Amino acid sequence: MSQFFNIHSENPQNRLVVQVADCLKQGGVVVYPTDACYAIGCSLDNKRGMDRIRRIRQLKDDHEFTLLCRDLSDLGLYARVPNPVYRALKQATPGPYTFILEASKLVPKRLVQPKRKTIGLRVPDHQIIRAILEAFGGPLVSTTLSMPGDEYPLNDPFDIKTVLEQEVEIIVDGGYGGLDPTTVVDFTGATPEILRRGCGDATVFGV
Question: Residue 152 belongs to what domain range?
Answer without folding.
Answer: 3-200
